[in-house]
Amino acid sequence: EAGVVQSPRYKIIEKKQPVAFWCNPISGHNTLYWYRQNLGQGPELLIRYENEEAVDDSQLPKDRFSAERLKGVDSTLKIQPAELGDSAVYLCASSPPKGVPYEQYFGPGTRLTVT
Amino acid sequence: GQQVMQIPQYQHVQEGEDFTTYCNSSTTLSNIQWYKQRPGGHPVFLIQLVKSGEVKKQKRLTFQFGEAKKNSSLHITATQTTDVGTYFCAANAGGTSYGKLTFGQGTILTVHP
Question: Which residues of chain A does B102 touch, with a Cβ-Cβ cutoff of 8 Å?
Fold first, then answer.
């Protein structure tokens, strides 16, 4: 079974530039999460999707962050414009509809550096 | 909002010594999960605890959920170098927040051979 796929793995941009991250969850996983992980911290939830519906986006900074999951499969997270404080690892995770409730399978992450 | 405190932040042990990390929540939890993140890697699910006072074992790892469902611990017996990594607890408050995990800051475990 293929795991959660994320791209790119690394991204370096200048502040005020836009950036986008892509995630393809494990096949059949209807729940998808985007997290941000700062150095030395645990992952912090940005947004959670059940199929194509965003069911929790309370921690998404909506002035500059946006996300979409149009067909309920892969998802894109965008930052525009990026700020220095956005430097972090952005993790995508997915959960299956059955099994351990909300056990999350994480992708390798995208390490963003804003200069 | 939900707060999850995890201690210690760092733990250095000699190979063969035991290790414990503790997780405390400000509110009663629906369940708690534990994840391990190897250096440079991503979090990997270890286990979920649901019942008050629950104890689960995975080989040398023992997980406990407190009677009040507000705290949890992970104990590793006779650590090995393969145990190196950061261990996170992730709390699920339930109710309208069911499905949302709040991660602790993690405990970084270093094992010296």
Answer: 45
